[in-house]
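Duplicate of earlier report; Right handed beta helix domain-containing protein input re-posted below.
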Amino acid sequence: MKLQTCLLLSFATATQVCATSTRQAPAVAPATNTTAENTLTPMPTTTITKMPGYETTCSAKLSLRCDQYFGAEVDMDKKCCEYDGECGDSGLPLCSHVNCCTGTEEDSSQVVQSKEKACDCAGAVIENKCYKTVQEAMKDSEYNDTVYIGGTKTIEEPIYFSNKLITVAGVMCDGVRAKIVSDFDSKTEAAFEATRWDQTMLFRDLDITGVPGKSSAGIHGLGNENDASNQLVDLTLLNVHIYDLWCQRVGCGIFLGGAKRLYTDEDCVFRNIQLMSSDDSLYAGGAAIGVVYLPEDHTLEIHGTFTDNIASYEEGSIHSGGGAVYLDYVAGDALLDGKFENNTANQGGAVNVQVNHGNLTFDGLYKSNVAIDGGYGARAGAVRVSSLRVNSFTQLKGDFIGNIAQGRGGVLATNSHQASSHMLLDGYFHANAAAEKGGVWNFWSGSTIYRGSTVMHDDATFTENTSGDEGLSNLFFISGYPSAKKSIPKNPSGKLTEAEWNGETTVVYGNFSEVVLLTEDSGLSEKEWFHYSQSLRFGGYLPDVTYEDLVMEERNASAAERYAEKILALEEMYVNKTERAEFLAEIDTSRILDRYENATEIISQRFVEHSEKYDSRLANKTDSIAETYNAAIERSDVRYDNKTSIAMEGYDAKIQAAHDELALNNPEALQAEFEAAQIEIQERFETVTAGNEKRLEESIQKAEINFIDAKESYDNTYSLNEGKAVARYNDRISEAKQKFIADEEKAYTRSDPTEALNTAQAKLDERLQSAEEKKMEELEGYDDTRQERIEVAQEKKDDAIATAQSKYDELKDEPAEKREADLAAAEERYNSRKGQAIEKFDERVEDATAKKDADMAAIEKVREEQLAAAELKKENSTSHYMEETYEPTMSAAQEKFDADLAVAEEKRKTDLAAAQTKLLERLEEAELRKAFMQKNAAVLRENILAGRPSMTNVLQWVQPVSEEEIQELGLVLESNGSTSKSDDTNLESEDAKPESEDNSEPEIIKPERR
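Output:
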């Protein structure tokens, strides 16, 4: 089926090159968007009606690397869920390393000790040493060290580190994961900042988060959105969770300017990360991950879960690309195989790739991602790949479900497909929606022509996808602005619906004049089908053979058009080739000189640091030895003074004690002491006697009081009962009178009431008499009870008084007896001490003098021995450190410094020579290819004019390797040495061009050095 051409395109513009750039600013300034709010296309809606089943086993998860990272095996039969939360209420764990690896190697004893210490360490632990902060540990780490972090660590500034090979490992403490909290505010900085030009890093089992209201990121390398820097980083993340971050530059979670290798495993989580800024010069999104440059032969492999991430420049460029992941220039192999859900950006709700020049595969689950129109257009609800370069391969083999674009491309949007670029759709596409065109895929460009081939494989599924043109392009739409040059063929256009696709493997092929759909039933030869469907070969559906193995005839065309086309392409290719050769030569030379400068600087810095380090250590050691010696002398003097002082104080104390004792024991003092003892004994006798009398008086008084209280209580009780008895008496009187009145009233009802009245009166008298008797009986009982209780209280009082008097009588004679005994003892002690006092004084003075002399002699001897030992230790320590440590170390450092400088100089010369050789080779190739293509163009024109097949005698380019081969080709090289960029970069970037009418040719942007 042939689709009609509807738009014009400038051929010259289509082949123009944007050499470094992977991105351009919008061709129309945002200032024109004054009425955007009123002109936005409404956000479409969609309903997911069918989800694939994701219940599987660990053996089916081929991306697991249990052996490589854990020294373990895959638990082959264990059931698991391919994507987190996508297996309903089954309770199946995620297919990941944490859940599928079994038989993990046991940690060494040192690792176990380091992990245990990390849980109690304020900072981090390296080789069982605790550092006060994580910053100190990272700074002190050496090659291949592991930094262990336990608990929650809050950092108030970024951690800069330059270790070439390092592992940062979180430790589970009491069931809680290790966490880094970034409590600083910076537009560009992250918690971990890698600064070495070549670094290999492994982060595992760690959470990284921020503080509300403060801008910070997770892990950063060097560079920025427009500069990949000269750094190449190898970064591995195992079970790392980055969440609740806000930052203002690409890659809030991870940013790498240059990636040697990036790997995140299935246990990694990137959640609720917001990239927001009002800077109108920013376009790159990638709230979770941002990579500027992935070189050829290098890999990027992303697994894990990416949810609720946002990239928005709402008050800035309003043109963010990639809600979760942003890749700028892919020349290597990139695989995105994770779960991407509820991510949002203007271009590529989940992922944005500016240029694919390598192999790019989208696997995994892309669900409910949104490309939202901030006023400047929106494309690609799930993934956007702006430019597909020559010989690149892009594959969508995952599940793309419920993604929405408030513009074009419900799943995918592209801007440039160069000739020989390949794209393959063989995934599951369900319920995706575009507000405008292209329910699944949209190609749009104002300056390039769709020239590649896209294959929709028969394994692909397309169901319930919608587009805003009433479903006329609910599968794909290809179009663009017309060219400003009317002499150039129109821009081809085409569209397809799900109903129109018959489920066969179909190639969507474009050239300068048309877009066509081809199948194996389209009447193509085997060679032609092979040419158009090469995406199947890249996707593994055909044998891996090269197109050079087959020869395909070119279609007939006018000689003038073909010749003009060839010459125009030739001139642009030649200029591109030579410019690219010179540009690459400049990059190579700059990198060589930078590496040499960096190497010499590092070598010199290392030597200076080494010298300063060991000079400092020598000074510290000398000072330490001197301090130790002085301290020993000082301690000896202090001990001498202390012991001398103690000895003299002891002597003086003993002499004074002897004098004091003698003074106490002289006759006058002893007589005074005896008299004082007599007075004290008499006073004690009087005190005891008075106390006994007082206790007797108090006991009698207490008994009287208790009796009075008890009698008063009994009287009160009687009065209360008396009142109750009178009240009852009154109640009975009242009741009797009431009954009498009732009887009287009843009597009057009779004809003769006399007898009834007499009876009623008699009953009243009887009741009154009874009430009076009961009252008197109750009062007599209450009075008897009161009298009995008063008599008991009187008996208790008498008993208490008698007990107190008896106890007093028993104790009355004891004080007098004790007084006489104490007086006799005092007199005996007085007579004994008076005779012994003088004799004891003389003995104590003699003993004190002898001990003082012995102590002073011993103290002096010890002091002399300590001074001699300290002097000897000082001399030995200084001599040993100089001979054994300082002098050998400084000699080795000087030798290494000289050797490293020589190696760096030799490498600089070798690299510069190689760069010059490579430049000459590229220039020569450009000249040879130009001469070859000129000759072929002339042959082709002659064939067409002569009526012969156009490709007769037209040769296929093979790089000549000798002068003889050059002569055999009949080529003449130009001598001006001009070069051009490779035609594999024939593209000006379509990124960020709003879908408004603009016929100006785009500006070509030079790249930052990669």
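Confidence is low (pLDDT under 50) at residues 1-38, 544-558, 971-1010.

Merging into the original ticket.
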